[in-house]
Amino acid sequence: xxxxxxxxxxxxxxxxxxxxxxxxxxxxxxxxxxxxxxxxxxxxxxxxxxxxxxxxxxxxxxxxxxxxxxxxxxxxxxxxxxxxxxxxxxxxxxxxxxxxxxxxxxxxxxxxxxxxxxxxxxxxxxxxxxxxxxxxxxxxxxxxxxxxxxxxxxxxxxxxxxxxxxxxxx
Length: 170
What we know:
The structure is a single chain. This protein has 170 residues and is mostly helical. The chain has a domain at 91-153. It is built from nine helices and two strands. It is flat and about 110 Å long. The model has no long low-confidence stretch (mean pLDDT 78). It comes from Galbula dea. Belongs to the NDUFAF4 family. This is NADH dehydrogenase [ubiquinone] 1 alpha subcomplex assembly factor 4.
């Protein structure tokens, strides 16, 4: 529907607009700068002859030039070495428990998966005496300063259910 409306506005008064554009005076091109070099060459025929004349001395120099080209030897690449990583990373199996199907199974040492992060934060929240920062760092192969930062700045959500009587009061 919108195409019909725009087509009407595009085709409105097309002939008059076209005639107006055609009847406008064409813009004059900018004047060119007179080139002193071309004027000098046009007035002197001896320079033109010099340009088109063959120089035998230069031709003999050109014939003395000999270029020899050789391709470097082709090396055969092994297909097996192309996809090897430059640095092998140590991997560890994750400690997932009940949420095993929802996360990756191997992570690099010094890193944790999302499910592991939530698990360790929840364990620390529920039992801070047992799950200390040192124990978490040893258990998950992490650095102690990273674990301290994680425990300080990330807190898992707490689900709180209100009794029915207090719901009405809220």
